[in-house]
Structures are given as structure tokens and as C-alpha cells.
Amino acid sequence: MSNLRSKTIIGAQSLGHSLLKPVAALGGFAWEHWRALQYVAAVIGTALWLALNPRYWKRDIRTKVAHQVMAVGLEPIGFVCALAAFVGISVVVQLTFWTGEAGQSQMLGPLLVTVVARELGPILMNLVVIVRTGSAMTTELGVLKISGGVENFQKEGQDPFTHLVMPRILGVALSTFCLTIVFIVVAFASGYLFAAWTAKGSGNMLLFVNTLSKAVHPKDVSNVLAKTLLPALFASASCCIDGLGVTGTFTDIPQATQKALTRSVAGLFAISATVSLLTYLKA
Fold it and tell me: N or C terminus of the chain: which is more exposed, having fewer CB within 10 Å?
């Protein structure tokens, strides 16, 4: 009887340990990402605070921010315009045609603003910036860290955060916002022109512009700003953290890059979903 009781107790303990392992792993996973989120938020807050302080805007800092804007926002402009034209032709024309067929032409403006401006524009442009710039940024900072470039900044009495992190975060955020505006304008313009050319929509440009302008509300502007800037800030801060966090050899850089890109994409969709949920709940 005693042996049976002992076996029962041992079995119950083993079962309890086996059930606690997934819970402990989940707790550790959540805690790790919560700490990472706090770190990213601290980096973004520090960068924005420095950006609002005029004494940190020295000539070399302004030059570095301008360089980031040129590299992130100007070089992919051709690809962005081509992508916007494709979206405009495939989405704007379809919405124009089907709202007309359904006799709901008054819904064209709100649908275009919601689908193209509020949803597709910010998400696609952030993805373009993350894929194109995030890996390069993480790799560049990782190489700089391992080769001793960060220590050289410190030896020269310069703050690495001000010279390496802040320009990248501000440059990526500003570039993403500009690319989003370009994407929205080109998508609407190409969709209108293609619809007018194929006679699938009204050829009256003033009517099309008026329809869009009436559909834009303050919440749409704030939605686009939030969905554009917040993921861009999050992604650039994540890439800077993982790039400067490389402590081993050059072979550790690809792992840091993969980690930064994964976190950036996950943050993009999490932020976009949260902003959309808050927007629709207030509607």
C-alpha cells in the first residue's frame, strides 16, 4: 500500500512538472519579449527627445539624417511608384467598377480611403523599408560594433547613440512617411487614369478628387500617421538594438539580422492591427 502511494505521488509530481514546463516556457517567452519591447520603447523615446532638443542638431547630425532619408526614401522611389501603380490599377479600378455596378457610387470614396490609404499604403511601405533597409542597417551596425567603430566614437568623446542610432531612427520614420504619401497619390492617380482609359469609371477628374476629399476625415489622417510612423520607429529601433547588440564574431551578424527583421515585421502587423481596432471602436 505504501509503495502504491509512493508511486502515485511520484506520478503526480512528474505530471505536474510536465505540465509546468510549457507554462514556464511560455512565461519566459512573454517576459523576454516584454523586456525587448520596453527596451525598444526606451530607445525610441530617447531618440525623439534628442530630436526635439536643438543643441543635438549639429551639422554632422543633420548630414547623417539627410543621408538616411536619401538612402531609405529616395532610392526605392521607382519601385514604390511601380507597386503603387499596380495597386491602383488592381484595387482602385475594381472598387470603381463594382460600386458603380451595385449602384453604391457614394461608397467609392470611403472604400478607397480605407483600403488604399489607411491599410495598404502604410503596411506595404513599411514592409518595403523593413526588407530593404532593416537588414542593411542591422548588418552595418553589427560590423561597426565588432570592428571597434563604436568604441572609436566613445574614445573621440562622441555619443554613439546620437551619431549612430538617432539619425537612423529619424531618417527611417521620415522616409517611410514620405514613401507612403507617394504611394497613396500614385495609386489613386494610376487607378483613375486606367479606369478612365478603359471606360470603367467616370472620366471626370474633379469628381474623383472631390469624392476622395469628402471621404477623408481627421481620424483617417491620424490613422495613416500612426500606421506609418509607429511601425517605422519600432523597426528602426529594433534593427539598431540588434545590430549594436552583436558581441561575438561576424558570423553572428546574420542571426541578429534575422531576429531584427522578424521582430520588425511582427511589430508592424501588431501595431497596425491595434491602430485599426482603436480606430474602428471609436467610429
Answer: N
